[in-house]
Amino acid sequence: MSAMFRSLRIANYRLWFAGALVSNTGAWMQRTAQDWIVLTDLTDNDAAALGVTMALQFGPLLLLMPVAGLMADRFDRKRLLVWTQGAQLVLALGLGILVVTGVATLGIVYAFALALGVATAIDAPVRQAFVSELVDVEHLPNAVALNSMSFQGARLVGPAVAGVLVAVIGAGPVFLLNAVSFAGVLTSLAFIRRSQLIAAPRLPRARGQIREGLAYVRSRPDIVVVLAIVFIIGTFGFNFPILVSTMSTVEFGGGSEQFGILSSVIAIGSLVGSLLAARRDRARLGMIVVGAAAFGVTCAVGAFSPNLWVFAALLLVVGAAGLTTMNTANAYVQTTTDPAVRGRVMALYLALFAGGTPLGAPVVGWVANALGPRWAVGIAAASGLVAAGIAIVWLIVSRGMRVGRHPEHRFGFQLRFTRDPLADRELATQDIAIVETTQRRTS
């Protein structure tokens, strides 16, 4: 098996990967159908209403972060996942029945989005931390990347299938199919062998444990910078349902097919970014900065796209750059964090990534309504450039970053540090090569 898929050699991880792929596909089908009925069936292309739906779905992740992270460190993660996945199955089934029977309203969709957000808020940090019980530290960066590949592969297939199904049979059956898909991950959890799990330290009951997790993060300035990047781009850059739906319908005059195509295109780019991340043996801080900058630049160019197809081509790069940033950030935080606080740190990571959506999505939706979708894409561009700028300033001031010639490429360069480039002792003596650029001579 190639190095890109080396974690799949582990039986428990193979089971988890297969179940998650089925479940993620169904979840993306539901998200696409939900966005579409809010935008077209329940409102008249109201991007602000779509932003509210996203805010309700992701808001609990921000509010429940301290409790969810503590649960991930204190309780049995496998058992918790059974409960959270089961709750999401029930919610998908309930919403599907209401949509099929024609009684669903915008308020009902809001309520289900909020309930799903609560279940997801508990599920997300447990799911992230559970990977460290399936594989050892050596395989963890690869497993994180493959998890993302599964997620993005589902994101590629799910919206395309949902777009066709919504057009043929309506949105209601899509929600019902998502309910069925949760059987995949529940089955995989049932077959995972507990004897082969890597035992994680269980946190005993004590006071101040949430503060302990926050204090650990404050003691790691490198993680603080990574979390800042994740928050800025996650809040103002990763509002893809708003950007894709409004650009496809309002700006380019398309329908559900075009919406599904653009959603799948950005998923292709994201899948490529995940595959590239899976090849790397270690998560590097410099790659996070490069990915953030590339995301910002490509979004800036995309805001001026003359037609749907140019915008679609640029979305490939946007997806690859965005997922390179987020995958590397996820792997960096997981692999350099003390296992005893990993659940709480990952909860903070996810809260800042997805929990920022309640702040950013309504703003981006309002901008799309008031000024046009291109301005909303411009906000995404600014998020990437600002995030990269903050990290670069910190590297220069705190770590003495300097640009130097690359020893192996005549027209290349790399970044070196006059002080330790990373807080992690294992990586402290390594240079971080952020980018290698070769240029052709011109006469």
Describe the structure.
- This protein starts with 10 loop residues before the first helix and ends in a 26-residue tail after the last strand.
- It is 73% helix and 2% strand.
- Helix 1 packs antiparallel against helix 5 (106-134), helix 10 packs antiparallel against helix 11 (256-279) and helix 15 crosses helix 16 (373-399).
- A hairpin with a 7-residue loop joins strand 1 (401-405) and strand 2.
- With 443 residues, it is mainly α.
- It has 16 helices and two strands.
- The model is unreliable at 421-443 (pLDDT under 50).
- A two-stranded antiparallel sheet has the order 1-2.
Q: Which features would summarize this protein structure in a list?
A:
mainly alpha, globular, 16 helices, 443 residues, single chain, two-stranded antiparallel ribbon
Structural class: mainly alpha
Total helices: the number is 16
Work out the radius of gyration. Answer: 21 Å
Intertermini distance:
46 Å
**Shape designation:** globular
Percentage of residues in strands: under 5%
The strands making up the biggest β-sheet line up spatially as 1-2
> For the report, how would you describe the main beta sheet?
2 strands, antiparallel
Unreliable segments (pLDDT under 50, ≥5 consecutive)? Answer: 421-443
- The ordered H/E elements are HHHHHHHHHHHHHHHHEE
Helix residue percentage? over 70%
Care to count the β-strands? 2
Mean pLDDT: 78
